[in-house]
Amino acid sequence: MANKEALRELQGRLAERLQEVRSIEHTVGWLAVECAGHAFLFPLAEAGEIFQPGTLLGVPHTEPWFLGVANLRGALTGVVDLAGFLGLRERIPPAVREQARVVAFNPMLELNAALLIDKLAGLRHADQMTPVVPDELPQPAFAGGRWLDASGRLWQELRLSMLPRDERFLRIIGAE
Description:
Elements: H1 2-23, E1 29-35, E2 38-43, E3 47-51, E4 66-72, E5 75-81, H2 82-85, H3 94-99, E6 101-105, E7 113-117, E8 119-125, E9 130-132, E10 143-148, E11 154-158, H4 167-170
Parallel strand pairs: 2-11, 5-7
Antiparallel strand pairs: 1-2, 1-8, 3-6, 4-5, 6-7, 9-10, 10-11
């Protein structure tokens, strides 16, 4: 008898919790990162695990921003220096390497790729940010919205799901 009551109580709590989850308004959330003094937002649903930069196996004849291949949890993953790819710097300063992290793409994107970023800056939510009206300049497809935080810092959203559609991102072979 006690087991049946406990089971009913558990089912009641689960039903209440499911109702709460359904009623919570889904807010946009990002992983905030910094590269070469610029602030970027990766959608949480598109970002995967975060790793310490480990050993990278260099790949000859590739673009300088393609750092090589790393073994991340048993999967060979191409690692791209985000700041280098975006043209924000040519080489990674040694001081940056100490704080740098590798952010893998979410496995649902089905791309064994990761981005080297200079530093993690935490999590951000849309209710903490103010959207910036887009300007007329052309943007790559992977550039999402721009946002201002409470301190007035500008953040650029980068849609990781759109990076594989960018021809330059996929063309890692360097000029001879």
